[in-house]
Design a protein that fits this description.
The structure is a single chain. The protein is α+β, with helices and mostly antiparallel strands. It has a single domain, classed as Gcn5-related N-acetyltransferase (GNAT) (Aminopeptidase, 3-Layer(aba) Sandwich). A 7-stranded mixed sheet has the order 1-2-3-4-5-7-6, with helices on both faces. Helix 1 runs antiparallel to helix 2. The longest helix is centred in the middle third of the chain and has 15 residues. The radius of gyration is 15 Å and the shape is globular. The two termini are 29 Å apart.
Amino acid sequence: MVELRNAEAHELEALKNFLTTHGANQWNYLPEDGIDEQFQRLYKGTDHCIVAMGDGRPVGIAVYSQPGDIPTLFEPYVAENPAAYVAEVTVHAEWGGQGIGSALLNHIAATSKAGGANELILERHEQNLASAGMMRKAGFVEIDCFLDLERRETGSRKTTVLSRNLNT
């Protein structure tokens, strides 16, 4: 059984380690300075982190923004304002395929809608099939795919942008 809860400030360093340990793969763009910046936003309360707990330990995390706080790169894709941006969803490999990622995304959707968001935006490497399935299961639809040579080093080197309308 997995329980979802908000991350607590005292555990953010351990969750940062979880992200770098379990989120690093050929598909994910996780530069050290970007991770540091993301966690500074969590410490300040600018962004939010949800933790999936299983067997008394974190087995998944998701990081997302406040409604209306979208990275500049994704602003052109926001159809309905305010939107929230999902920056990270990572599930421990031993817990993969159990719907944890989709549950985290659905939790973010409900929380963001209650906070005034009309839409969620996220992105993935075009060829990351595990993420594609998780995102599709959570109700996201692809809205664009573009060559992203700065952030993608493997495969097609393309980023797929996805959206979930929270008003339907």
